[in-house]
Amino acid sequence: MSWITNFLTSSIGRKLIMSLTGLFLIQFLLVHLIGNLQLLVDDGGEKFNLYAQFMTTNPIIKATSILLYSGIVLHIIQGLLIWKQNSGSRNTRYAVSKNPNVDFASKNMGWLGTIILVFLILHLWQFWFKMKFGTMDMIPYEGVEVKNLYALVAATFKNPFYVIAYVIGMIVVGLHLKHGFQSSFQTLGLNHKKYTPLIKGLGSIYSILVPLGFAIIPIYFYFFR
Ligand code: HEM
Protein backbone atom coordinates (compact mmCIF):
# COMPACT_ATOMS: atom_id res chain seq x y z
CA MET A 1 0.00 0.00 0.00
CA SER A 2 2.87 2.33 0.63
CA TRP A 3 3.41 2.98 -3.09
CA ILE A 4 -0.13 4.37 -3.23
CA THR A 5 0.55 6.71 -0.30
CA ASN A 6 3.88 7.65 -1.86
CA PHE A 7 2.21 8.37 -5.18
CA LEU A 8 -0.66 10.36 -3.69
CA THR A 9 1.70 12.56 -1.66
CA SER A 10 4.11 13.07 -4.57
CA SER A 11 3.70 16.30 -6.48
CA ILE A 12 2.22 14.55 -9.55
CA GLY A 13 -0.13 12.55 -7.29
CA ARG A 14 -1.29 15.74 -5.63
CA LYS A 15 -1.89 17.41 -8.98
CA LEU A 16 -3.83 14.36 -10.14
CA ILE A 17 -6.12 14.54 -7.08
CA MET A 18 -6.59 18.29 -7.68
CA SER A 19 -7.50 17.65 -11.30
CA LEU A 20 -9.95 14.78 -10.64
CA THR A 21 -11.69 16.48 -7.70
CA GLY A 22 -11.71 19.74 -9.70
CA LEU A 23 -13.46 18.08 -12.66
CA PHE A 24 -15.94 16.48 -10.29
CA LEU A 25 -16.72 19.89 -8.71
CA ILE A 26 -17.01 21.46 -12.19
CA GLN A 27 -19.79 19.02 -13.10
CA PHE A 28 -21.43 19.57 -9.66
CA LEU A 29 -21.56 23.33 -10.35
CA LEU A 30 -23.42 22.79 -13.63
CA VAL A 31 -25.97 20.43 -12.01
CA HIS A 32 -26.34 22.83 -9.05
CA LEU A 33 -26.90 25.77 -11.41
CA ILE A 34 -29.54 23.92 -13.46
CA GLY A 35 -31.39 23.03 -10.22
CA ASN A 36 -31.12 26.57 -8.85
CA LEU A 37 -32.36 28.20 -12.06
CA GLN A 38 -35.79 26.83 -11.07
CA LEU A 39 -35.77 29.66 -8.52
CA LEU A 40 -36.48 31.97 -11.47
CA VAL A 41 -39.72 30.16 -12.39
CA ASP A 42 -42.66 32.37 -11.47
CA ASP A 43 -44.64 29.80 -9.45
CA GLY A 44 -44.11 30.97 -5.86
CA GLY A 45 -41.25 28.47 -5.44
CA GLU A 46 -43.19 25.23 -5.96
CA LYS A 47 -40.87 23.69 -8.57
CA PHE A 48 -37.74 24.64 -6.64
CA ASN A 49 -39.06 23.47 -3.25
CA LEU A 50 -40.13 20.09 -4.65
CA TYR A 51 -36.75 19.74 -6.35
CA ALA A 52 -34.89 20.62 -3.09
CA GLN A 53 -37.06 18.14 -1.20
CA PHE A 54 -36.15 15.41 -3.70
CA MET A 55 -32.43 16.29 -3.64
CA THR A 56 -32.24 16.18 0.15
CA THR A 57 -34.27 13.01 0.74
CA ASN A 58 -33.49 10.69 -2.19
CA PRO A 59 -31.10 7.98 -0.85
CA ILE A 60 -28.98 7.85 -4.04
CA ILE A 61 -28.51 11.64 -4.07
CA LYS A 62 -27.73 11.54 -0.32
CA ALA A 63 -25.00 8.93 -0.96
CA THR A 64 -23.58 11.05 -3.82
CA SER A 65 -23.49 14.04 -1.45
CA ILE A 66 -20.92 12.21 0.70
CA LEU A 67 -18.77 11.94 -2.43
CA LEU A 68 -19.29 15.67 -2.99
CA TYR A 69 -18.27 16.66 0.57
CA SER A 70 -15.19 14.38 0.35
CA GLY A 71 -14.31 15.90 -3.05
CA ILE A 72 -14.54 19.44 -1.66
CA VAL A 73 -12.42 18.61 1.43
CA LEU A 74 -9.76 16.77 -0.64
CA HIS A 75 -9.62 19.61 -3.18
CA ILE A 76 -9.12 22.17 -0.39
CA ILE A 77 -6.45 20.17 1.49
CA GLN A 78 -4.46 19.28 -1.62
CA GLY A 79 -4.82 22.84 -2.94
CA LEU A 80 -3.42 24.28 0.31
CA LEU A 81 -0.53 21.77 0.28
CA ILE A 82 0.36 22.56 -3.35
CA TRP A 83 0.08 26.31 -2.63
CA LYS A 84 2.41 25.99 0.37
CA GLN A 85 4.84 23.84 -1.60
CA ASN A 86 4.91 26.28 -4.53
CA SER A 87 5.32 29.42 -2.42
CA GLY A 88 8.08 27.70 -0.39
CA SER A 89 10.05 26.74 -3.48
CA ARG A 90 9.43 30.03 -5.25
CA ASN A 91 12.15 32.25 -3.89
CA THR A 92 12.78 33.13 -7.49
CA ARG A 93 9.40 34.82 -7.94
CA TYR A 94 10.57 36.87 -10.92
CA ALA A 95 10.58 33.74 -13.09
CA VAL A 96 6.82 33.56 -12.78
CA SER A 97 5.73 37.16 -12.65
CA LYS A 98 7.73 38.21 -15.70
CA ASN A 99 6.33 35.52 -17.93
CA PRO A 100 3.66 37.24 -20.05
CA ASN A 101 1.95 33.90 -20.75
CA VAL A 102 1.09 33.34 -17.11
CA ASP A 103 -2.22 35.08 -16.50
CA PHE A 104 -3.71 36.55 -13.34
CA ALA A 105 -5.89 33.51 -12.55
CA SER A 106 -3.13 30.92 -12.84
CA LYS A 107 -0.79 33.00 -10.66
CA ASN A 108 -3.42 33.45 -7.95
CA MET A 109 -5.25 30.12 -7.77
CA GLY A 110 -4.47 29.80 -4.04
CA TRP A 111 -5.92 33.21 -3.19
CA LEU A 112 -8.92 32.72 -5.46
CA GLY A 113 -9.57 29.31 -3.86
CA THR A 114 -9.33 30.86 -0.39
CA ILE A 115 -11.95 33.50 -1.27
CA ILE A 116 -14.19 30.72 -2.65
CA LEU A 117 -13.74 28.82 0.63
CA VAL A 118 -14.92 31.88 2.58
CA PHE A 119 -17.87 32.21 0.16
CA LEU A 120 -18.69 28.50 0.56
CA ILE A 121 -18.69 28.68 4.37
CA LEU A 122 -21.08 31.66 4.23
CA HIS A 123 -23.21 29.93 1.58
CA LEU A 124 -23.50 26.58 3.37
CA TRP A 125 -24.31 28.30 6.65
CA GLN A 126 -27.06 30.37 4.97
CA PHE A 127 -28.85 27.58 3.10
CA TRP A 128 -27.52 24.09 3.66
CA PHE A 129 -27.05 24.33 7.45
CA LYS A 130 -30.36 26.14 8.02
CA MET A 131 -32.17 23.63 5.84
CA LYS A 132 -30.63 20.59 7.57
CA PHE A 133 -30.49 21.78 11.17
CA GLY A 134 -32.55 24.98 11.47
CA THR A 135 -36.28 25.49 11.87
CA MET A 136 -37.76 26.14 8.46
CA ASP A 137 -41.14 27.41 7.26
CA MET A 138 -43.15 24.55 5.79
CA ILE A 139 -45.44 24.75 2.76
CA PRO A 140 -48.00 22.15 1.60
CA TYR A 141 -48.08 20.80 -1.97
CA GLU A 142 -50.93 18.37 -2.64
CA GLY A 143 -51.22 17.68 1.08
CA VAL A 144 -47.50 17.03 1.62
CA GLU A 145 -45.56 19.46 3.86
CA VAL A 146 -42.25 20.54 2.30
CA LYS A 147 -39.51 22.88 3.62
CA ASN A 148 -39.92 26.34 2.06
CA LEU A 149 -36.31 26.82 0.95
CA TYR A 150 -37.51 29.23 -1.73
CA ALA A 151 -38.69 31.68 0.96
CA LEU A 152 -35.29 31.48 2.67
CA VAL A 153 -33.45 32.19 -0.61
CA ALA A 154 -35.84 35.07 -1.43
CA ALA A 155 -35.40 36.64 2.04
CA THR A 156 -31.60 36.27 1.89
CA PHE A 157 -31.33 38.06 -1.44
CA LYS A 158 -33.40 41.02 -0.26
CA ASN A 159 -30.25 41.99 1.64
CA PRO A 160 -27.92 44.02 -0.68
CA PHE A 161 -24.85 42.84 1.26
CA TYR A 162 -25.50 39.25 0.21
CA VAL A 163 -26.27 40.25 -3.39
CA ILE A 164 -22.90 42.03 -3.63
CA ALA A 165 -21.11 39.17 -1.82
CA TYR A 166 -22.57 36.62 -4.25
CA VAL A 167 -21.75 38.67 -7.34
CA ILE A 168 -18.14 39.15 -6.17
CA GLY A 169 -18.02 35.46 -5.22
CA MET A 170 -19.11 34.50 -8.74
CA ILE A 171 -16.43 36.70 -10.38
CA VAL A 172 -13.85 34.87 -8.25
CA VAL A 173 -15.40 31.45 -9.11
CA GLY A 174 -15.19 32.41 -12.81
CA LEU A 175 -11.48 33.29 -12.56
CA HIS A 176 -10.72 30.10 -10.62
CA LEU A 177 -12.61 28.02 -13.19
CA LYS A 178 -10.93 29.74 -16.14
CA HIS A 179 -7.54 28.37 -15.17
CA GLY A 180 -8.78 25.24 -13.33
CA PHE A 181 -10.82 23.89 -16.25
CA GLN A 182 -8.02 23.66 -18.79
CA SER A 183 -5.35 22.93 -16.19
CA SER A 184 -7.18 19.78 -15.01
CA PHE A 185 -7.24 18.41 -18.56
CA GLN A 186 -3.57 19.27 -18.97
CA THR A 187 -2.70 17.37 -15.76
CA LEU A 188 -4.52 14.32 -17.14
CA GLY A 189 -2.17 14.47 -20.11
CA LEU A 190 -4.77 15.64 -22.61
CA ASN A 191 -2.42 17.84 -24.56
CA HIS A 192 -3.17 17.87 -28.25
CA LYS A 193 -2.65 20.34 -31.10
CA LYS A 194 -6.28 20.04 -32.14
CA TYR A 195 -8.07 19.44 -28.81
CA THR A 196 -6.19 21.76 -26.43
CA PRO A 197 -7.56 24.98 -28.05
CA LEU A 198 -11.02 23.37 -27.99
CA ILE A 199 -10.74 22.58 -24.25
CA LYS A 200 -9.45 26.12 -23.58
CA GLY A 201 -12.37 27.61 -25.52
CA LEU A 202 -14.87 25.39 -23.73
CA GLY A 203 -13.25 26.34 -20.40
CA SER A 204 -13.57 30.06 -21.18
CA ILE A 205 -17.25 29.71 -22.13
CA TYR A 206 -17.98 27.58 -19.04
CA SER A 207 -16.16 29.95 -16.70
CA ILE A 208 -18.26 32.88 -17.95
CA LEU A 209 -21.71 31.29 -18.39
CA VAL A 210 -21.90 29.25 -15.17
CA PRO A 211 -20.91 32.06 -12.74
CA LEU A 212 -23.13 34.46 -14.73
CA GLY A 213 -26.07 32.05 -14.34
CA PHE A 214 -25.49 31.93 -10.57
CA ALA A 215 -25.04 35.72 -10.28
CA ILE A 216 -28.35 36.38 -12.05
CA ILE A 217 -30.24 34.67 -9.18
CA PRO A 218 -29.47 37.14 -6.32
CA ILE A 219 -29.78 40.10 -8.72
CA TYR A 220 -33.18 38.87 -9.90
CA PHE A 221 -34.47 38.39 -6.34
CA TYR A 222 -33.21 41.77 -5.18
CA PHE A 223 -34.74 43.76 -8.04
CA PHE A 224 -37.73 41.75 -9.25
CA ARG A 225 -39.15 39.67 -6.37
C1 HEM B 1 -26.87 32.16 -6.51
C2 HEM B 1 -26.10 31.12 -6.34
C3 HEM B 1 -26.48 29.92 -5.50
C4 HEM B 1 -27.66 29.59 -4.90
C5 HEM B 1 -28.99 30.33 -4.91
C6 HEM B 1 -27.45 28.34 -4.21
C7 HEM B 1 -28.39 27.67 -3.44
C8 HEM B 1 -28.17 26.57 -2.64
C9 HEM B 1 -29.13 25.97 -1.76
C10 HEM B 1 -30.57 26.47 -1.59
C11 HEM B 1 -28.53 24.91 -1.15
C12 HEM B 1 -29.16 23.97 -0.08
C13 HEM B 1 -30.03 22.92 -0.71
C14 HEM B 1 -29.25 21.91 -1.47
O1 HEM B 1 -28.45 21.17 -0.86
O2 HEM B 1 -29.45 21.83 -2.71
C15 HEM B 1 -27.17 24.83 -1.64
C16 HEM B 1 -26.25 23.87 -1.30
C17 HEM B 1 -24.94 23.85 -1.73
N1 HEM B 1 -24.32 24.78 -2.55
FE1 HEM B 1 -25.23 26.31 -3.48
N2 HEM B 1 -26.15 27.92 -4.42
C18 HEM B 1 -25.50 28.88 -5.19
C19 HEM B 1 -24.18 28.87 -5.61
C20 HEM B 1 -23.23 27.93 -5.22
C21 HEM B 1 -21.85 27.93 -5.63
C22 HEM B 1 -21.22 28.95 -6.56
C23 HEM B 1 -21.25 26.86 -5.02
C24 HEM B 1 -19.82 26.41 -5.10
C25 HEM B 1 -18.79 27.23 -5.23
C26 HEM B 1 -22.27 26.17 -4.23
C27 HEM B 1 -22.03 25.05 -3.48
C28 HEM B 1 -23.00 24.39 -2.73
C29 HEM B 1 -22.77 23.14 -2.01
C30 HEM B 1 -21.46 22.37 -1.95
C31 HEM B 1 -23.99 22.79 -1.38
C32 HEM B 1 -24.29 21.54 -0.53
C33 HEM B 1 -24.89 20.51 -1.49
C34 HEM B 1 -25.33 19.21 -0.85
O3 HEM B 1 -25.51 19.13 0.36
O4 HEM B 1 -25.53 18.23 -1.61
N3 HEM B 1 -23.45 26.85 -4.38
N4 HEM B 1 -26.98 25.86 -2.55
Provide structural commentary.
- It is built from 10 helices and 2 strands, in the order H-H-H-H-H-H-H-E-E-H-H-H.
- It is mainly alpha-helical and 225 residues long.
- The chain has a single domain (2-89, 100-224), classed as Fumarate reductase/succinate dehydrogenase, transmembrane subunit (3 helical TM bundles of succinate and fumarate reductases).
- It has a two-stranded antiparallel sheet.
- The longest helix has 31 residues, at 59-89.
- It is globular.
- The relative contact order is 0.13.
- The mean pLDDT is 93.
- Bound molecules: protoporphyrin IX containing FE (HEM).
- Residues 32, 36, 52, 55-56, 65, 68, 116, 120, 123-124, 127-128, 131, 149, 153, 166, 173, 214, 217-218 line the site of protoporphyrin IX containing FE.
- Protoporphyrin IX containing FE (HEM) binds at residues 32, 36, 52, 55-56, 65, 68, 116, 120, 123-124, 127-128, 131, 149, 153, 166, 173, 214, 217-218.
Kindly provide the radius of gyration, computed on alpha-carbon positions and rounded to a whole number of angstroms.
20 Å
Q: What's the domain count?
A: 1
The helix/strand class is mainly alpha
The amount of helix comes to over 70%
Lateral arrangement of strands in the main beta sheet: 1-2
What is the CATH superfamily classification?
Fumarate reductase/succinate dehydrogenase, transmembrane subunit
Residue share in β-strands: under 5%
For the biggest sheet, the summary is: 2 strands, antiparallel
- Give start-end ranges of low-pLDDT stretches: none
